[in-house]
Amino acid sequence: MPTVNLTQMNTHEIIQKVVEFGGDGVVKCIQCGACASICPVSHAGFPLFCKQLIRKVQTGYEEEILDDPSTWACVACNRCVEVCPRGVNPTEVIFAFRRIQANELAISTSSLMSQSNLYEKGHAVLSGESKKLRVKVGLPENPPTSVNDEKAQKEIQTLLDNSPMADLGIF
Prior knowledge:
Layout: H1 6-20, H2 34-38, H3 40-43, H4 50-58, H5 62-65, H6 79-83, H7 90-103, H8 112-121, H9 128-136, H10 150-161
Helix pairs in contact: 1-7, 4-7, 8-10
């Protein structure tokens, strides 16, 4: 009787999902560690920073990492993108995995405030403190995003209302 390698089947499926959600660079990563060396999530001690997430995806560990909140700690600073010698774009891989997590309703409680802000204000990170800091450095109080565009805010709300995230009852 032939042996069935379930890990290999799972590996193909999770890689395909990540690619479909925008993280096509996941297949280019050679685990050099350049991204991890400058990643704030890595330095903060989260167990699943960019390099680790990519390796877990490449080796088919979807179920083991699906509920890990580490991906939600990524602040999209793009330092990893700048230093990657292979053009992996680790930020896009992380965001693709977040989309998988969102579809599975595996969203970290640490991201609930930003999700609520996105729905209500059109911008995920928008506090009184961030507004003050923007003004202090000579920028407009509100960033040039959907926060200043009522039509865009309504579109975001419609998208979120019709997404699996609506089932979470956040908004």
